[in-house]
């Protein structure tokens, strides 16, 4: 059962040949691997849009035609283009199909698989004939990207350990335990200058070094797969698309710090990730890549999964460890730091999923290679989950130092519906926004902090003029009030007070004094809260006040919501000059707020109006205006 | 097991499953949360008797078990509907109007967030990001995901499950 390094090498080599057609357009394929691979995304996004049915139907067609040996249907992980899903990638042609439906299966099969002619209308970005020609080799979306952490997402079958092996998988672990001393591994990590991707950006090698220098027998390696930032799904994508990379990296970390047990703390809201991880762990044990004598070299490392249960604060490191211990996930003061006293009171390191995903590559390609990417103080790449009001929503992995402008306009394709960019929010409930005036700032940890935001885990939500910044601040405050564990008063009570004030402002009842109060409260909470949740909770308010103070003023002084979001301040008004008195609005109003007929002008009774906006939507002559 | 545990909680099948779950995890460190997860899968929620049983068998004070159950949003002490509607309130979905979707569900089902319809068919909750942000705004009904929704789509979704029920 336990495979030696020689056995593993053999599998790796054979499988590598089988997968050549995915790398080289002219590769001919192998008897085992077949001549054509149809990679169908089976990530959370695409399965939600019925990709499993596509897989099933494609398989049935291939079986029926007796082509099962030649043509392989491969389930793969998230390509990052979920909004365009389901995605089907065909090799060796490198044709990417988007928005595929089960009804398209017959055409793909007959035209492309059998006839060798790609289905033009399904090709990514195929708006017109010219675009088809230009874009068969991938869209702009992928052009500026650099896939390091996401290297295997969409490129392999995550449920097949052999495919991971074929992409040099577990080679870094082998290298560490056969050729390197634990200190060498730590030195290499330090030299790479990799910084944590979970939010704070702490140097990974330094963290490992602290834990390694502790003398205890028992130590732990943990992975933070709690991905709490709402609207971010980078970690989900890695867990679903490349689970073995995390297992390998955690084993490497175990070797480096002298730990023989690891835990992956993963959100229960990610069922596919949980399933793939469990499967991958089982396979790794079978191959002797986890367990008591890894690759026959005497190194022991065991790995277990622990499921979160829907508490954002459990993403905080001390809370996470308390939760793994089976308790209420409340943070505790640091020091002692987990590297000294962590899980079960023993030295523990905790790293983020994306941080780990970088580790095997760094070991294999050396620190200098990693160093050459990024900025002075932030090396390597960062994955962002780009969402909100942007044309190409999805995951993008870019070198550190890329500007927001490049992300939004070159990769993201700009803002849809002819609207304008207003701001981007990064760092989730702990972060802030970047206004249009700062779009050319190179993105890295320090620059974002200087702007009053933070990198966070990589959520990047784009907003247009329809987003009200006060409402946005309220949204995040509601989130933190909800998720505050309640242990310390500044956070428990302070954020609640802040929310009350902001709510008052959105209801048109705020005063200028409230703005000062918010600032004072924010400062006190930041200084006095026990954990990162409370310390950063005021950021969304502070940053929107900094860049969009005029919007706060409009709410407070003019009692107007410029974006037309805050309902109590919105007014719908019928513009009599263009009104054709057709009566459609009146018929559709749920509260009977509209009066008028052929002879009498149509008007809205503001007391009865519940501001549902239906009338405006239904008026065929655009005679109803918001906030007029 | 305790001496007077002759009381079966739920059906015999459920009770056997609960005991199996506890037996599987008993003895491992930090067993409580995995046990609660799996027990909730068996019963659909975590009624007091189930918590008491878990407390006794794992030899943890009931107060601690309850403390954990009440701390984590995923554990519910109230029964849920047969069709559990969850509207994602993550940032990506919020910016794309999930608030309107939630309002629409409230109207269509005639219940508030956290409640269950009287016939026990539907429950409505606001949930945290499920990682399908590319499809925002997103709603799940049990395991089925509905993405890129508009407020107008809500009625159709409710009807779909009502029809399913009528068939059964
Ligand atoms: C309230 C709160 C929530 C957090 N949530 C996460 C999370 O979801 N994922 C994550 O990797 N780190 C999260 N962190 C950061 C972790 O505490 C920790 O710094 C990180 O996991 C360390 O890994 P890294 O050094 O690889 O980034 C959170 C921190 C706080 C204060
Ligand atoms: S800052 Fe908030 S979340 Fe953190 S320990 Fe205090 S109350 Fe809990
Ligand atoms: S916004 Fe809604 S309630 Fe108000 S007038 Fe129009 S349809 Fe009626
Ligand atoms: S629907 Fe438009 S045009 Fe018709 S009555 Fe109403 S406001 Fe006038
Ligand atoms: S889930 Fe398929 S591309 Fe993201
Ligand atoms: S924000 Fe709704 S799925 Fe992520």
Written description of the protein model:
The complex is a heterodimer of chains A (628) and B (168). By secondary structure, chain A is an alpha/beta fold. Chain A folds into five domains: 35-135, Glutaredoxin (3-Layer(aba) Sandwich); 161-371, NADH-ubiquinone oxidoreductase 51kDa subunit (Rossmann fold); 381-464, Ubiquitin-like (UB roll) (Roll), CATH 3.10.20; 469-558, Up-down Bundle (de novo design (two linked rop proteins)), CATH 1.20.1440; 571-626, Alpha-Beta Plaits, CATH 3.30.70.20. In chain A, strand 12 and strand 13 form a beta hairpin. The radius of gyration of chain A is 27 Å and the shape is globular. Residues 127-138 of chain A have low confidence and may be disordered. By secondary structure, chain B is of the alpha+beta class. Chain B has helices at 12-25, 32-43, 48-58, 62-71, 91-95, 98-109, 153-167, and strands at 83-88, 122-127, 139-141, 144-146. Chain B has a four-stranded mixed sheet with strand order 2-1-3-4, with helices on one face. Classes of the chains: A alpha/beta (628), B alpha+beta (168). The interface between A and B is large, with 52 and 40 residues. The complex binds flavin mononucleotide (FMN), iron/sulfur cluster (SF4) (3 copies) and FE2/S2 (inorganic) cluster (2 copies). Residues 88, 90-93, 129-133, 136, 138 of chain B line the site of one FE2/S2 (inorganic) cluster.
Largest sheet of chain A: 5 strands, mixed
The largest beta-sheet of chain B arranges its strands as: 2-1-3-4
- Specify which chain pair forms the largest interface: A-B, 52 and 40 residues
Fraction of residues in β-strands of chain B:
5-15%
- Reading off the top of the CATH hierarchy, the class of the largest domain in chain A is best stated as Alpha Beta
Structural class of chain A: alpha/beta
How many helix segments of chain A? 26
Helix share of residues of chain B? Answer: 40-55%
| CATH homologous group name of the largest domain in chain B | Glutaredoxin
CATH superfamily of the largest domain in chain A: NADH-ubiquinone oxidoreductase 51kDa subunit
| Helix-strand makeup class of chain B | alpha+beta
Globally, the shape of chain A reads: globular
Uncertain segments of chain B are none
Distinct small molecules bound, one entry per kind = flavin mononucleotide, iron/sulfur cluster, FE2/S2 (inorganic) cluster
Form type of chain B: elongated
Total separate domains of chain A: 5
Number of strands of chain B: 4
- Uncertain runs of chain A are 127-138
